[in-house]
Amino acid sequence: xxxxxxxxxxxxxxxxxxxxxxxxxxxxxxxxxxxxxxxxxxxxxxxxxxxxxxxxxxxxxxxxxxxxxxxxxxxxxxxxxxxxxxxxxxxxxxxxxxxxxxxxxxxxxxxxxxxxxxxxxxxxxxxxxxxxxxxxxxxxxxxxxxxxxxxxxxxxxxxxxxxxxxxxxxxxxxxxxxxxxxxxxxxxxxxxxxxxxxxxxxxxxxxxxxxxxxxxxxxxxxxxxxxxxxxxxxxxxxxxxxxxxxxxxxxxxxxxxxxxxxxxxxxxxxxxxxxxxxxxxxxxxxxxxxxxxxxxxxxxxxxxxxxxxxxxxxxxxxxxxxxxxxxxxxxxxxxxxxxxxxxxxx
Length: 346
Hints:
Layout: H1 3-14, H2 26-35, H3 41-54, H4 58-63, H5 66-73, H6 80-96, H7 104-107, H8 115-126, H9 135-145, H10 154-167, H11 173-186, H12 205-209, E1 225-235, E2 240-241, E3 244-245, E4 256-257, E5 260-263, H13 269-275, E6 287-291, E7 297-300, E8 304-315, E9 323-324, H14 335-344
Parallel strand pairs: 1-8
Antiparallel strand pairs: 1-5, 2-9, 3-4, 6-8, 7-8
């Protein structure tokens, strides 16, 4: 039996019942694919339900405020996905009359959509023969065929894309693409793959050569930097605090945070006390400063590790332009700050 047929048979018997598999509505498929970028199904599913409930159509998403979209996305990380999703929704409504693009090439023009996502939508919604290639697919194919070409190179992408395109079932591309993604996610897992029950265990080159754990090959390119983040949590006599919206194109763009003092090393109490004077709203005010967490909270991102401390500043003054503490949960914030707010219990 061909690998393609084996794969589809396995999928038919083992596929999970997921809400986006019960529709070919491109809006819902698009939502699911964007949410599942860099995110496992178990984590992404509640967000999919929340988005489809709050924004049942692309028109609803397009007319939403960005802050509302970011708040709903809170905790999922890689917030550029949410911003791109919102931007593309407005493009679909305002430029395309609410009609979702129906070809691979046009889907690829949407902001935040790459080859993988465009291939998934084009095949699932419009029955186009364009194979998906993601981490799950790379892993499964590299092991099955014993391919050692690094997956995060242009040569690697071309190699695995061509192979997946060669294997795709042209009569049912949607089923094939979902099958190979499901197979990589549940059978050919990164660690402890179920080789004993794998339908390809008599064909897998990696299993035969005992190199399953060595594949796929990925070049290490990202140098992780270490940063010290010190958030200044102000509490005034009129029960207000200070929140600032992050701007620019860095991490957490457009999310809110407490005033941030970034240092090259773990700061001393006196250093933070001195730096606080640079915060406009606190100038010439008497403050009481305390450290919330003696041990830094390490927040790991793909390219940097943030060693974070929260400093509590009590001021015996009012904050006319401050944010009321009882509204603090209305603001979209990074999960790091969300966890602090929950634990501190204002």
